[in-house]
Amino acid sequence: GLAFSLVGTICILFDALFLLGLGFLFTGLGRAFGSGSLDAKYIEDGQRNGNKLEDLVYALEINSGISLSLGALIGGWLLTLGKEGSSLTQPLLLVRMVLLVGSMLIVIFSIREEVSQDVKRISYKEQFRLFFSTLRSSPFLVLYCVSVLFQGMLLASLESYWQPYLKALLLDDSMLWVLGMTTAIIFSISILGSVFGKKLVRYKRPVG
Fold it and tell me: What's the rounded Cα separation, in Å, for the pair 184 and 75?
């Protein structure tokens, strides 16, 4: 996933429309391949060490919210360092490349996953079959997947339009830090949602 994201970022550095589209394609692949893999390992290792699932998810959400908020602030500031025109995002993309390379080195040299020889590898076709079989046996999972689908569509539409609209309201590119500040506030509010969510789970937990 990190490798795909790195290739995508390199493509976006260039002005050609074809490379820009290719960059978005690789970036999307990077997000798809990297989504949930380290999270799953973190949760598995945490549960193996005796930690509760809700505490692990809570810590993960808080860490993610803080990291995204700081990243949004720094990203907004980096946009103000770029030159007007096609070079506007170059400082941001260069820093992104450095972070991706650093993340790849950390994953390669510091994260070890024990693979059991007895584990049977399941093909993608079999995984899809098991997925749909599980959905048919659980109406709740069907509703949950539908809700996730609608949330993804809603977030995609918001992400596509609010930033260009807000940028059009700014006087010049020196005020692009406002984009980072706005995004940081959004992610900060998500931290509050995680805090309230944990309290709600504890409140609704059945006794006995």
Answer: 10
What's the CA gap between 145 and 135, in Å, rounded? 9
Q: What pTM value is reported for the model?
A: 0.69
Instruction: Give φ, ψ of 113 to 5 degrees.
Output: -115, 125
- Residues 76/176, Cβ–Cβ less than 8 Å: yes
Q: How far apart are CA 106 and CA 119, in angstroms?
A: 26
Q: How far apart are CA 43 and CA 60, in angstroms?
A: 9
* pLDDT-flagged residues of the chain (< 50): 206-208
Chain centroid to CA 184: how far?
14
For position 85, what pLDDT does the model report? Answer: 64
Residue 207: the pLDDT is 44
With 0-12 CB in 10 A as exposed, 13-18 as middle and 19+ as buried, what is 154?
exposed
Q: Which tokens in the block code for residue 110?
A: 């510091």
